[in-house]
Amino acid sequence: MPQDQANLSGTGRNLPARLACILAIFTAIFSSNVPTPLYAVWQAEWGFSSTALTAVFSVYVIGVVLTLPTLGALSDQVGRRQVLVPGVLFIVVGGLVFAFANDLYGLALGRFLTGLGTGVITGTATAALVELDPDRNWPRAATVSALMLTAGATAGPTFSSLVLHLDLSPLFTPFLVISLLATVGAVTLLTVSWPANLGQRRPGFRLRNWRPQDMAVPRSIMGAFAFAGAAFCLSWSAGSIYAALGPSLAAELVGIGDRALAGLYAAMFQLIIGVSQIAVRHQPPRRLLLIAPLVLALGMVICVVGIVFTSPAIFALGTVTTALGCGATSVGALGTISLVAPEDKRGGVISAFYVVAYTTMAMVVLGVGASGDAVGLKLTMIVLGGFALLGAATLVSLGRWRGLVGMSRERGNG
């Protein structure tokens, strides 16, 4: 059989399994972002503080971080589908817990289960997409995964904002839909045809002999890891503030009375991040890290101006600018780490990179929530905008002065 025909045949045979993985990624990210416009609603109805709100948001991080060095790497040994199905079931249960939650503990449990499911699914499904691709085309699989991340992150808050606007039991209906969608995903994974030689349990594997993935960072790339990690943390921290408090900021500080419309700011933010990541993906990582953090910080300053003058238009401009900077900064940071990490340790280095980013993100969100309760969200955002500008300027200055990215790349390759 000619090679082209064989590839087409392989594509056709693997297409159902690939679609099942794509659905799993979309469902995980969709479920993670659906609550965003609803936090302010729960807060208004139940009367809890901004600190409590951001704590509920941050519980998700615990679930994700627990799975990064454990269940995700376990799929290399026991098989992709064998790990994906439990991951999707976490999403099913998490959606049901959210739907029937009547206090903060219920929200926290739902968020934790969603984090577990998302942590399991994203890495495992992306690895499965590479294996299922007839050409083992990593860039193509990564692009598909990134598109689903953007689609899920945008669709989640858009859907819950629509349900909120239509008043269709907004604290129940979105989570029932999540559980139903995840159930369909689990059934699909169980029933689709899966190549017998791909992503299966390794012969002789014993769970008692398995150990979590090593996340050590080689000393030779520590400079690049710290530089890119700081940029990545800046990007994710800004994004998490929009995810946790964006609708509250729009409603309380910018004067947008319609909470459904306020929730769309979060959807817009996620969409622009995705567009930015696709637009800059072919740019050199170091160039991105010398420009994008300043764009991000400029966006946050514009948002602060919008808050000070109670202007939805200026706040929207700041949101778009911040998102453009976040997307480009993330691509530059991940590109840098992928380039400098030794091939035999790349998985562990990237896992460590994400653990640092998630942990920092949770700490920043909790700090913003506590500060909002203590001195008010307006002053908190003004100070945060100043810190973002200072942090971005420091990063760019270090990058230009010492060339950390280039130096560490040479050392890593050496």
Explain how this protein is built.
- This protein folds into two domains: 1-192, MFS general substrate transporter like domains (Growth Hormone, Chain: A, Up-down Bundle), CATH 1.20.1250.20; 216-414, MFS general substrate transporter like domains (Growth Hormone, Chain: A).
- The protein is built from 15 helices and no strands.
- The chain has helices spanning 3-33, 39-46, 50-67, 71-78, 80-99, 104-132, 138-166, 173-191, 222-252, 259-280, 285-308, 312-340, 346-375, 377-402, 404-413.
- Helix 7 runs antiparallel to helix 10 (259-280).
- Residues 1-11 and 404-414 have low confidence and may be disordered.
- With 414 residues, the chain is mainly alpha-helical.
